[in-house]
Amino acid sequence: MLMITEGLLTAELDLESLNPPVMEGLDALLAKKRSPKKVEPDLSISPQPSISANWFTSKSTKKVPLSSVTSIIDGLKRLYIEKLKPLEVAYKFNDFVSPLLANSDFDARPMVMLLGQYSTGKTTFIKHLLKSSYPGAHIGPEPTTDRFVVVMSGPDGRSIPGNTIAVQADMPFSGLTTFGTAFLSKFQCSQMPHPLLEHITFVDTPGVLSGEKQRTQRSYDFTGVTSWFAAKCDLILLLFDPHKLDISDEFKRVIGSLRGHDDKIRVVLNKADQVDTQQLMRVYGALMWSLGKVLNTPEVMRVYIGSFNDKPVNEAAIGPLGKELFEKEQEDLLADLKDIPKKACDRRINEFVKRARAAKIHAYIISHLRKEMPAMMGKAKAQQRLIDNLEDEFAKVQREFHLPAGDFPNVEHFREVLSGYSIDKFEKLKPKLIQTVDDMLGYDIPDLLKNFKNPYE
Q1: pLDDT per residue over 249-295, tens digit each?
Q2: What is the DSSP string of 148-215?
Q3: Distance CA 96, CA 30 (A)
Q4: Strand-strand pairing, 148-153 and 111-116
């Protein structure tokens, strides 16, 4: 008789060759009863191990079980739920940095966001790629698009209001509810059947305005919304017009909010056939000079020059050489867009790893602040002192755990959120949660990449 011991349970067994015990006379007994409600068990099937029981153990370096994961995205979902989400929940990562992820965030199609001042051709650009208009599209010389419009695939052409789309579980826009009803009333989703939209979703944005008056008239945090979309998007196109090269205060803030997503940004000099070749050369130089002052990077941003609309190129202004240039630039931009689905899988892993690192640093900061609080008296004064000297506390955490300074959150934003909490109610450092995330980054994600290939390759 086989004795079940602790050693046997922990040992690795070949479950396919393991024969379960069979009761003699069971078949005859069941044949007598002939009960229609009972189904005869198929004892020839080997017992399968529980998927949830043997899924990535925290200290295991085994390969990802193929029986429980079917793709890289599926694997990331399981890793998030089982390993990263507990750390985020324990230290309120969703309140300070980013909302908790849902299944729809992993399954969403790649997104392309268009930013620019009014009348630079953002809506026309989407219409040009789709070769048709989309529900709710308005085009004109004045600021026509007054809302964020997500253009995505759907069974029929229709517009869905922002409040409705933000509460749909199968849509990746639930995080936008944090910006309130004032924003959701300026947000909509346009659905239409289209082969391109089956692979890419477009985000059309309101024209960025200039002047303090226009900025204060916005009833929602425009910069915060663009930053939220920038984190979700796979490509960000900044559109400029040869006659609108000035970068306003609001546009400067918007471009500043894209920090950390520099690899996603591309610049499009649209309507370039409105000037001749000599003027275009000067316009291009002025645009690069303006961008250099705002982006503060030594690298040169990729700029696509062209006229992205359905009208034929104005060859009288730019000449045959200009027409050839425009065609090559358009081909390069279309090739960049075609690469998005292929790169989206890699970018999703990249964003996931970036989020895990941010969650770890957030846990270190929160637990450090909790440790600095007194046990009994003077909690209010101690909390105020910590909030006032937050830069110094960040520096202490950085030195103690040898963390890169560039990965730390924005001090002002962190201070603003922290002031609404009692620091002594936060959790102390839980090394086990940190170790679980370290194991995930060190073993599980590399194993996932080893076992599954990019579905678009």
Answers
A1: 888 888 888 877 888 889 998 888 878 888 888 888 888 888 888 87
A2: EEEEEE-SS-EEEEHHHHHT-TTSTTGGGGGGHHHHHTTEEEEEE--TGGGT-EEEE-PPBP-SHHHH
A3: 61
A4: unpaired
Q: Can you read off the two tokens belonging to residue 324?
A: 């050839």
Which residues are paired to 385 by β-bridges? Answer: none
> Residues 106, 73: contact at Cβ < 8 Å?
yes
The arithmetic mean of pLDDT across residues 193-208, rounded, is 89
User: Using an 8 Å Cβ cutoff, are 290 and 283 in contact?
Assistant: no
pLDDT in tens, 358-407: 999 999 999 999 998 888 788 888 889 988 999 999 999 999 999 888 88
Torsion, Cα 190 193 198 204, to 10 degrees, reads: -20
Place of tokens 């678009």: 456
How many helices and strands in the chain, by DSSP H and E?
A: 21, 8
Per DSSP, the three-state class of 443 is helix
Q: Which residue has the higher pLDDT, 3 or 441?
A: 441
- Of all residues in the chain, the percent with pLDDT exceeding 70 is 78
Phi, psi of 61 (to 5 degrees): -115, 20
In this structure, the dihedral spanned by the alpha carbons of residues 270, 275, 277 and 280, taken in order and rounded to 10 degrees, is -50
